[in-house]
Structures are given as structure tokens and as C-alpha cells.
Amino acid sequence: MLPNLRQTYFIIFAGCTSLILTALYMQYQMGLHPCPLCVTQRIFVIVVGLIALAAALHNPKGFGNKIYSGLGLVSGLIGAGVSARHVWIQNLPEDQVPACGPGLEYMFETFPLFDALALLFQGDGNCADVVWSFLGLSIPAWTFVAFAGLVALCFWQGLRKA
Q1: Mean pLDDT for the chain?
Q2: CB-based burial, 113-124: b 16+ in 10 Å, e otherwise
Q3: pLDDT digits (tens, 9 = 90+) for 131-158
Q4: Per-residue pLDDT tens for 31-65?
Q5: pLDDT score of 67 more than 90
Q6: How far from 161 is each of 29, 54, 65, 149, CA to CA, in Å?
Q7: Maximum CA pair distance of the chain?
Q8: What pTM did the predictor assign?
Q9: Among 5-9, 72-76, 101-105, 137-141, which stretch is predicted with the lowest mean pLDDT?
Q10: Sequence ranges of the domains in the chain
Q11: 142 with 134: CB under 8 angstroms?
Q12: CA end-to-end span of the chain
């Protein structure tokens, strides 16, 4: 028996929560500090999770479900795009890697908000470092896989009848 819409939204929320807890574990217990693109990916995981939580609590029917699933789908696709860019940067030849930029705190203290956000999405040389991998895939590659699953679930939710 398949889970109903509400249960599936809670599953999406739980998955996003697990991803963020894993990222925090890697940061604070393993000492793997996030680069700007990592932070951006985290933001989109949180956005998808919050949309799913809102949908689970609201338990929408019909068009409302399509709105929530569409918002989750778009957020997941943007996150997947950021992950794909990150993997691309990691696979560039050394001479083509962008220069390392300023730290996140400095960016948000010094630049206007939209300029800081643009720099965050762009990534820098710090993003090219592969600091951890599992089964030959880096953290951004695994995050891309996670976004692909979240996108698939959100798409499926939009097709389902309430």
C-alpha cells in the first residue's frame, strides 16, 4: 500500500532533515567545512523540506497539492542545478578552476545582499576540492542524487490524486 499525500510529504521532510543533520555532522564532527556552493545546496534542501512540512501540515487537496509539489519541484531542480555546477567545478582541470573567493561571513558583511547571493551561487576555488567521497562520488554528487530523489517525489506528488 502506497503512503497517502500527507505521509509522503512527511517522508520528504524527514529525508531533508536527515540530509541537513548529515551535513552538520560532517561539518562539526568530521571537520569538513562547507564552501559557498555547499551552503547554497543546504539552503535548497531546507527549502524543499519546509515546503514538504507545510504541505504535510496543510494536507492540501487538488490544486493546492499541485502548488506545493510544484514549489518543491522547482526548489529541488534549482538545488540539483547548483549540485551539478559544483560537480562540474570539481571535475575541471586545475588550470581552469576559478580563484578562491572571500569567506561567507565576509561576503555577507561587506557586499549588498544580492551581490553576496550571486557570489554564493557562483562558487569559487574552494568548491573544487573533493574533501570526502563514498563509492567514488563526492558530497556534491551525492547531494545531486538526493535532489534527483526529492524532485522525483515532488513530481510524483503532483501527479497523484488527493
Answers
A1: 85
A2: eeebbebbeebb
A3: 767 898 888 999 999 999 999 999 999 8
A4: 888 887 888 899 999 999 999 999 999 998 889 99
A5: yes
A6: 43, 18, 9, 20
A7: 53
A8: 0.81
A9: 101-105
A10: 5-159
A11: yes
A12: 15
Fold of 5-159: Bromodomain-like (1.20.1550)
Residue type, 153: L
Take residue 123 and report the three cell numbers written for it.
562558487
State residue 78's pLDDT score: 94
Distance CA 49, CA 96 (A): 35
Q: Which long-range contacts (CB under 8 A, 24 or more apart) does 92-101 make?
A: 92/128, 97/125, 97/128, 98/122, 98/123, 98/124, 98/125, 98/127, 98/128, 99/124, 99/125, 100/124, 100/125, 100/126, 101/36, 101/125, 101/126
